[in-house]
Amino acid sequence: MLPFSSSGILLRRTEFGDYDWILTLLTLSQGKLSMIAKYARKSRKRFSGTLELFSEIGFIGAYPRKGGLPILQEAWIKQPFTGIRNDFERTAYASYWGELLLTWLEEGKAQTKIYHLLRYGLQSLHSGVSPGITSIVFQLYLLKFSGLSPDLERCSRCRTDLDRIPGESCGFDLAKGGLVCQNCISERSLPYPLTKGTIKQLRWIQTSRLENIDRLKFTGRAVNESLVFLEAFVPYHLGRDPKSRRFLIHVRQLRC
Ligand SMILES: [Zn+2]
Questions:
Q1: The domain defined by 1-80 carries CATH number 2.40.50.140
Q2: pLDDT in tens, 168-192
Q3: What is the dihedral sign for C-alpha 193, 256, 230, 232?
Q4: With 50 labelled, which of 2, 78, 84, 194 sits at a CA distance of 20 to 30 A?
Q5: For all residues of the chain together, what is the average pLDDT?
Q6: Which CATH class, in words, describes the domain spanning 87-256?
Q7: Which secondary-structure segment (H or E) carries 243?
Q8: Interval between CA 180 and ligand 1 midpoint (Å)
Q9: 166 alpha carbon to ligand 1 midpoint, in Å?
Q10: 165 CA distance to ligand 1 middle (Å)
Q11: How close is the Cα of 171 to the center of ligand 1, in Å?
């Protein structure tokens, strides 16, 4: 056995055989990593409540010499983020982010910035910050760290700068990854409409440091149009529609 240790955030937990779990974590040292927690289901004492979804744990794992998934040997809680699992809507947001990362990230490749972004998002959800605003920040940074930031400076077709575009709103062209003005669109309604005020706030987030974003204020309308836009743009790049996105939209409608 070749041992190693790291911090990790638990993104998925599936039953394996009669006694075990297969865990998928976003780890600090190796990025996305799947491991086996042997006898975790048979004996509650074995990992005593440490293996809950969205918890941040410290752990020791070991690679079997014959190959195969690493085996979890010890785990301890670093931050349980209990405020998330006690709340349906916050759980829906965390599940959506988790599914994005599970689909997006390569196994075994360290993603330190994305680890800290997820930790920031979970801490915000846990401590009662607006989940909608947190999800806007999470998705914009995930795109930024992946080199896929939407271009919010000008119309992607006629190249007119935002401030010179007539009217109060623009649409967004998912395929071009940029804004589209009313003059450049033949349809009556703009796709994914965003008011100029919202676009400027999104631009401010794109160019700010994560630690300066805490006091951000959005109107209800700005939150709604940003979420509709981002929850279409991010899955578009992912190439598939996460199941948890539909669940999240359903939960949000129940709250309205
Ligand atoms: Zn245009």
A1: yes
A2: 999 999 999 999 999 998 777 789 9
A3: negative
A4: 2
A5: 94
A6: mainly alpha
A7: helix 243-255
A8: 5
A9: 10
A10: 7
A11: 10
